[in-house]
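Please review this pair:
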Amino acid sequence: MKKPTRKPAKKAAKKSAARKTPRTKMAAPAGASKAVDASKLIDGRIRELGDWRGKTLERVRRLIHETDPDVVEEWKWMGTPVWSHGGIICTGETYKHVVKLTFAKGASLDDPSGLFNSSLEGNVRRAIDIHETDPIDEAALGDLVRAAIVLNLKNPPRRR
């Protein structure tokens, strides 16, 4: 009786490669300024999406910059746009059906307009999931960004 032989797990490797999103391919060029690189990488992400998610990410990015001209753009965690001022204000993740703005200290922010609709169970973060047809309350979002900055400046992150 012939023993069955095990073939290498080629399928698993193919599946793993297929799961990679374009965001993992966008790395900062060596030797360039981090702030410039992050902005260029975010520009690239918006172009790469090329659909309602890119337009939504571009819109919230513009609003964040209008709210705080001193905001710093960063590119973290293998491809996540991050906006900071005295600490992280929020991140802008894109998924198939949603653009998610996650506020790092959202649980500590007043949200009288009720924009937070995701990650509500945690003690620290809060998020806003924006779907394709959702309106964006720009005034309320600007208020949240300003409140996040005030909180960051009042309680700056500890350096380790």
Q: What stands out?
A: The chain is about 35% helix and 15% strand. Residues 138-154 form the longest helix (17 residues). Strands lie at 72-76, 80-84, 88-94, 99-103, 126-130.
